[in-house]
Write a structure and sequence with these properties.
By secondary structure, the protein is an all-alpha fold. It has 9 helices and no strands. It starts with 13 loop residues before the first helix and ends in an 18-residue tail after the last helix.
Length: 186
């Protein structure tokens, strides 16, 4: 049981109401992540801002989802893995085999996406202390130095939501229920 309230537009603190309404309009409902983050208008605003900025990067929508899904798998976030699995499949059109490999922490067939997933995993595991050899391997796969920082930003966004979901014990929304996920034991 969570100690946090999952707000509606009406019950949210004043500073979160317009953001929740925006999220509801965009998604068709208020996702529980947004509803929980609404307790802190600044946290909800930060999440929305990072999301909007990540969308402006040179990473394709599918590549953005690979970063966010892989970071969420590495952080063991049941909520975000379910949500990003649905978004990866239905919005970004990530290949089903790639999606399955990400969720099961298996190698991805596509070499570019594999390099992206591997680099994202290293950023999460090593808390950003990725060595030059790993950065060079990422660059050699066709990514840029800007993309290195785009991955760091995506990991930052997911660290905010993954950790918030852990603390809030956020229940998976019905809209994401078909994509429920349990962490693989390492």
């Amino acid at each position: 049981m969570s100690l946090f309230q999952f707000h509606t537009v009406e019950s949210a603190p004043e500073g979160s109401r317009s953001l929740l309404a925006e999220g509801q309009k965009r998604m068709g409902f208020v996702p529980n992540l947004y509803a929980g983050l609404a307790e802190s208008p600044a946290a909800l605003e930060a999440y929305f801002a990072l999301s909007a900025i990540l969308a402006k990067t040179q990473l394709t929508p599918a590549e953005q989802q690979v970063v966010m899904l892989n970071a969420s798998v590495e952080n063991g976030c049941h909520y975000c893995v379910a949500a990003h699995s649905m978004l990866a499949k239905n919005v970004a059109k990530v290949d089903p085999d790639t999606l399955c490999a990400l969720r099961e922490q298996q190698p991805i067939a596509d070499p570019r996406l594999r390099a992206l997933a591997d680099f994202t995993r290293l950023v999460v595991e090593q808390r950003g202390w990725v060595d030059e050899q790993a950065v060079q391997a990422f660059l050699d796969a066709g990514f840029s130095r800007a993309n290195v920082l785009d991955v760091v930003m995506g990991v930052t966004m997911k660290t905010l939501s993954n950790y918030a979901n852990h603390v809030m014990q956020t229940p998976v929304d019905a809209a994401f229920a078909d994509e429920r996920w349990e962490a693989v034991q390492k």
